[in-house]
Amino acid sequence: MKFRYEHRSEPLLPRHLFVRRVMWHLLVGACIVLAALGIGVVGYRVTERLSWIDSLLNASMILGGMGEIAPLNTDAGKLFASIYSLFAGMVFLVTVGFLMAPAVHRLLHKLHLEEETKGPTG
Q1: Rounded to 10 degrees, what is the CA torsion of 77, 87, 22, 105?
Q2: pLDDT band at 67 (very low <50, low <70, confident <90, very high)
Q3: What is the DSSP letter of 106?
Q4: Does 39 score more than 80 pLDDT?
Q5: 3-class state of residue 110 by DSSP
Q6: What is the pTM of this model?
C-alpha cells in the first residue's frame, strides 16, 4: 500500500482519517517486528540448536535491546548473533521512525498551515 500524506497546500487530514493512518502504521510496524523476530527465532534454532522457546527468548531479548540469555557455543551462532544484533538495531530505528511519521507529519503540517494563515512577517 502506498502511504500518501497530504501536501502542504492541502487541508489537515480529519481526525478519524488520522487515527486510521496511525492504526495502519501500528499494524505495519507490528508486522516488521514480528518478521524480524521470526528471523531471529529461526536463526538461533538453526545455528545454536536452541529449543523454540529459548530461540524466541534470545531473539526477543536482542530485538528489545536487552542482550541474549542463552550462552552461544558455536561460531555460527556467534556470527549470527552479531549480525542479528546489528539488524535488530536497524529494525528498531526504522520502526520507531515509521511509527512516529504520522504524528510528526501532522505537527509539521499544522504548523505550516498556521504560518500560512498569519502571512509573511515583515
Answers
A1: 170
A2: confident
A3: H
A4: yes
A5: helix
A6: 0.81
CB 36 within 8 A of CB 106: no
53-87 in b/e form (b: 16+ CB < 10 A) is ebbbbbbbbbbeeeebebebeeeebeebbeebeeb
Q: Between helices 52-63 and 75-118, what is the axis angle to 10°?
A: 40
**Residues 40 and 62 sit within 8 Å (Cβ to Cβ):** yes
Dihedral angle at the C-alpha atoms of 32, 35, 37, 43, nearest 10 degrees?
-140
pLDDT, position 92: 94
Q: Which residues of 12-26 are buried (b: 16+ CB within 10 A; e: fewer)?
A: ebeeeeeeebeeebe
Q: Cβ atoms within 10 A of the Cβ of 49, count?
A: 12
pLDDT digits (tens, 9 = 90+) for 6-24: 887 888 889 999 999 999 9
pLDDT at 69 over 80: yes
